[in-house]
Amino acid sequence: MKQLALLFFFNLLVLTPVNSYAQKDSLISKKDTIQKLKFSFLVDAYISHDFTSNNHLKPNFIYNYKRNNELNINFLYFKTVYFYKNKRANLAIHSGNYAQYNYSNEPVFFQFINEAAVGFKLSKKHAIWLDAGIMPSHLGFESALNTDCQTLSRSVLAENSPYYETGIKLSYTHPSEKWFVNFLALNGWQRIASITPSFSPSVGLQLNYTPSKKWLFNYSNFIGKINDLSPYVRSYHNFYFQFKSTAKINFTGGFDLGFDRRSNQVSNWKALVLIIQKEQSKRIKYAGRVEFVHDPSNTIIPFETTDSARKLIISSVNFDYWIFKQLVVRLEGKYTYSNSKIVDFSTLNNWSTIANVSYVFN
Length: 362
Description:
It is a single chain. It contains 3 helices and 16 strands. It is mainly beta. It has a single domain (about 1-360), classed as Porin (Beta Barrel). A 16-stranded antiparallel beta barrel has the order 1-2-3-4-5-6-7-8-9-10-11-12-13-14-15-16. The longest helix is centred in the first third of the chain and has 14 residues, at about 1-15. The protein starts with a helix and ends with a strand.
């Protein structure tokens, strides 16, 4: 099915004449009825240093800004979006450390694809869409694009849940635009290609409520096997809210709860994150983050000990300076504390920093 979706996408772009327009994002307003073709580009360069570890790579539960003590590209990204009345299509390709480490289990061809999806509006009167292909994940509030995130590095909560997913989704937006519902059938947990043809799809649900311009509430879940070969059935639940105050202070809170079941054995983990961001001006932003992770069964964090009280606490501070509209410099300092030894961390207390320059065009 994925091959058919990709073929249709290329035919759509090549055979249909278009006019080119620039717009802020790929979400098309319900009032837009003319042809649109949008291009986006992002380059995300960084250098990272770990003050308490000599390891060249960060631990294996971290996928972004992976390498220490060298100038590197975390994310190089090009995307085109097509929209016309009742149809839409996305194609995005990428490279860099994010793709190298996050897509390492995918076939080589798919490791360069960030998005490849087509969608059709099923109703003339209602915003009901059917989309298929490789799409951004419906779980969480962080993405691979660092300029879309309040903090430079991603939370442990985000790094250990899907950034992308492959399958079919049916979505509905209420006319008031306060409610959004998304139903999904997926190729597993962050998986593009199925290994066995008999693999049964996983399912997902997303409920999004925006009562006003200041508030957003979201619940998303995932139920099914991680991939074709996994003996576990995963049940994962993601909650988050976002609040924007009149003083240009933004709050984001998230809570994730996961369960892996195999026969009578159940492992679970939970993660909590709180982010506060201050928009000092159009050029300057500050942010602080606190995270708590409890993983008694070593499901996502590689603790060396067997103590069931294995916990991780992370705090970080961020400074962003936009040199101009497309160019931003971001600095982050991070402190990580664990009450049990973690693989690739030399001490229970870890200090690190990241300096980043990103150029974005959209």
